[in-house]
Structure formats: structure tokens, C-alpha cells
Design a protein that fits this description.
Layout: E1 2-4, E2 9-12, E3 26-34, E4 37-46, E5 58-68, E6 74-85, E7 90-101
Length: 110
């Protein structure tokens, strides 16, 4: 779940099973880059090495380019995901894409 504050604050919680119990929620910021387009950066702590994966203790940084629909009810995101060890060395990078739908206060819609 992603939460965008009016002041540019950005928080994120994930249930990624690969990082279950090993990753903190993410905190960061977002900025407008044009009509319906935004950049966001989020960082989370990786508490310990994740067994059977290349993931090490350190931090994860996600740099996102977000495009909102004209009615602002859904978005598409392209992202660069970077992992840093405890010395700050970037040892792993990947790309990601996502789509999202805005939560509503409706009793009949998600």
C-alpha cells in the first residue's frame, strides 16, 4: 500500500514474501513533474541477509516515475529498485512496473 501526503511525504508497506520480516516499511517523498506525472523516492531498511536470495542487510531504494489517469483513480509506475549493503555499496539493481487503483470511501467499490 502506498500513501501520498499533500506535503510530499510518501510511505509504503509491502507484503513481499521474499522479504517477509526482513524489510521495514518504506519512507520517502514525491514531487510533481507535470500534469498527472510524478517522481517518488522511497527507502526501506533490510534488517538482515535474506536466506536463499542475493538480498543482504542494508537498504532498498526505489525511484519511481508515476503517471496518473486523467480522473486520478489509477496509475502506472515504472521504477528502478536498488539494494545497498551496510557500507552503502549498490550491489543489486532491477526494474519494476506496477499499476494501482485509488482507494475509495464507497461501500460498493474497493
Amino acid at each position: 500500500m502506498l500513501t501520498f501526503g499533500r506535503d510530499g511525504a510518501f510511505t509504503e508497506a509491502t507484503n513481499n514474501p521474499t522479504l517477509a520480516g526482513a524489510r521495514s516499511p518504506g519512507h520517502g517523498f514525491w514531487t510533481s513533474t507535470g500534469q498527472n506525472t510524478y517522481n517518488a523516492v522511497i527507502e526501506a531498511f533490510i534488517y538482515n541477509d535474506v536466506l536463499n536470495t542475493p538480498i543482504k542487510a542494508g537498504t532498498q531504494k526505489i525511484l519511481q516515475n508515476i503517471t496518473m489517469s486523467d480522473n486520478n483513480n489509477w496509475s502506472e509506475t515504472g521504477a528502478e529498485v536498488k539494494f545497498f549493503d551496510t557500507s552503502g555499496t549498490n550491489y543489486l539493481s532491477a526494474c519494476a512496473n506496477a499499476t494501482a487503483t485509488r482507494l475509495t470511501g464507497s461501500d460498493s467499490e474497493p
